[in-house]
């Protein structure tokens, strides 16, 4: 993580780490919890033993996986932003010494994962792929650390259905930054995040990028009137 763009992204997430969860819940009208449940249910159907939750942030997906999957499932939440990992570790500690025993957190850059080849049965990444400065390289790294037959799960913003676009972009461009600025005292961070949402490829284009990285059996399920999508792909 040495290029200026990655450094700027790291700094931005560090500044909003303490209020990140609250902002996510408010700005999504609480829908983020349902999206995570959908992801966890999809992962559970694959019965993985070892899971990497990449770009784990404050750990919400890792904790949801830990709470819903068998206790023998090992979950590693990984992120390149230490302030975010500090929030995740704080949550785990506050839950008690016996809570989430199957969840651990580690520092790691999504462009150069500190993990051996074929280490995990599943890789999840939620609303983090669009912040990778090189998506192709990041996807290649995710494929590298997956075991043969393993599954990639990408929960990410997408392009909404045409009828929903006017209301969606009105909210995204004009309402969300004001609320986010009030909640986090960092409106500029959400201006950047909004830009990444608008510039991110839609379901079909992202599916092609995932296939180009060497994955097979790629599927995409639209959520929230298409504004979010859950992709699955096999190694």
Question: Could you describe the 3D structure shown?
Answer:
The chain has helices at 4-16, 20-27, 31-44, 60-68, 82-94, 135-145, 165-184, 187-199, 203-212, and strands spanning 50-54, 74-79, 103-107, 120-126, 146-157, 216-223, 228-234. The protein has 235 residues and is an alpha/beta fold. A 7-stranded mixed beta sheet has the order 3-2-1-4-5-7-6, sandwiched between helices. It is globular and about 45 Å long. The chain starts with a helix and ends with a strand. The mean pLDDT is 90.
Keywords:
235 residues; 7-stranded mixed β-sheet; alpha/beta; globular; single chain
How much beta, percentage-wise?
A: 15-25%
Round the mean pLDDT to the nearest integer and report it. 90
Total DSSP helices: 9
Beta strand count? 7
**Strand neighbour order, sheet with most strands:** 3-2-1-4-5-7-6
**Oligomer designation:** single chain
SSE string, helices as H and strands as E: HHHEHEHEEHEHHHEE
Global outline: globular
Radius of gyration from the alpha-carbon trace, in angstroms: 17 Å
User: Alpha-carbon distance between the termini?
Assistant: 26 Å
Helix fraction bin: 40-55%
Characterize the main sheet: 7 strands, mixed
Structural class by helix and strand composition: alpha/beta
Low-confidence stretches: none
């Amino acid at each position: 993580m040495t290029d200026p763009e990655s450094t700027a992204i790291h700094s931005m997430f560090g500044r909003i780490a303490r209020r990140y969860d609250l902002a996510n819940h408010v700005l999504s009208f609480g829908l983020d919890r349902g999206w995570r449940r959908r992801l966890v249910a999809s992962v559970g159907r694959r019965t993985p033993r070892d899971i990497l939750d990449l770009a784990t942030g404050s750990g919400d997906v890792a904790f949801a996986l830990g709470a819903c999957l068998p206790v023998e499932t090992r979950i590693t939440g990984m992120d390149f932003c230490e302030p975010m990992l500090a929030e995740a570790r704080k949550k785990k500690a506050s839950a008690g010494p016996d809570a989430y025993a199957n969840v651990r957190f580690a520092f790691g850059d999504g462009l150069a994962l500190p993990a051996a080849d074929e280490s995990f049965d599943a890789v999840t990444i939620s609303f983090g792929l669009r912040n990778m400065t090189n998506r192709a390289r990041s996807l290649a790294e995710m494929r590298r650390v997956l075991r043969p037959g393993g599954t990639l799960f990408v929960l990410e913003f997408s392009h909404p259905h045409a009828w929903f676009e006017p209301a969606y972009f009105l909210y995204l461009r004009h309402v969300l930054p004001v609320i986010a600025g009030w909640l986090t005292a960092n409106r500029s961070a959400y201006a950047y995040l909004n830009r990444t949402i608008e510039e991110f490829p839609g379901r079909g284009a992202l599916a092609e990028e995932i296939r180009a990285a060497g994955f097979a059996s790629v599927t995409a399920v639209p959520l929230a009137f298409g504004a979010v999508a859950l992709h699955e792909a096999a190694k």
